[in-house]
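User: Teach me something about this protein's shape.
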Amino acid sequence: MLTVRASATREEWNTALARLPAAHVLQTWEWGAFKQVETGWTPERLLFLDGEQPVAAASLLTRRAGPLRVMYVPKGPTLDYANAAHVQAVLDHLEALARQRRAVWLKIDPDVIAGTGIPGGDDPARPPHDDATGQQVLGTLRARGWRFSASQVQFRNTVTLDLTQSEDALLADMSQGTRRKIRQATKHGVIVRAAAGAADLATLYQLYQVTGARQGFLIRPLEYYREAWARFIEAGLAQAFLAEWEGAPLAGLVLFHFGPKAWYFYGMSSNEERQRMPTYLLQWEAIRWAQARGYPTYDFWGAPDTFSEDDPMWGVYRFKDGFGGTVVRHIGAWDYVPNAALYTLYERLMPRILGAMKRLARRNG
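Assistant: First, the predicted structure itself:
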């Protein structure tokens, strides 16, 4: 029988979380605080104890939409998912909270691997493989009536590098083209340095604006990214880098890190001097930085849902795949629905409400 209590301090929470399997930076104290300030989610940090020992954790975010309430555990709960009894106990508690608070839905998105490799892939060096624990968790969620979420907030698939290898082994696993472009960037005078301070963060944002315009995605105001990047850098959970040529910024990268992983969360680049291949050297230096600090895994944070050239992430995936590594497929986000009728109504109406709000904002802007 597990007991549950709320964690009162950042130190207690992050320390307990870091000791659990597959701890994720989106479950840290800082991420909950950031989401509260920037997007109105209220964090609640629940520790599940076996005696005095924390065996699971869930940073539970709650937000009201008028009289309605929705609940979300980003990249959590965190626990040993091979322990079926603990999985059942944690789900029991979270489901009970959702019912008691009359939530429209409770969404979880645990960092549980469903399998590795590309389904149907023909690469003999990286064949597809289903993960037994992940498949067991999927069966548990289905049996309990959870629904695969239509809103997959985080990336389900990614590419990871094993940083316990030597640098020579990492380079050998890269594609020939990627190794050549790393050397080309160095030969052409690109220099990578750590970024910090308000001026560098403003430069990163300017590069991100250029990237968003080039690739066709919307970005938030500077204050949002300054809060995200600066908060995590100051907490020792992120590191930013800039690639420059003759003092001119060509590309940037923001790396988050916690527990067993470093994550390539944000990448940005200029439209100028792209032939100098700054993004390749930048990525390599971030990998080396993570390895030097003892992180066993480097997560490129995002790969296509379907591995075909029609997927909008295909170009980004090909860049990441050039560094070698393994395609990792997670189980994705799942919804617990206390009231099916209310959930269906919410799922139908919410996109219309958000669309109307965006149109109003454009007219007023």
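Now, about its shape. Residues 356-365 have pLDDT under 50 and may be disordered. The CA atoms of residues 184 and 309 lie 27 Å apart. If you'd like, I can walk through any region in more detail.
User: That's plenty for now, thanks!
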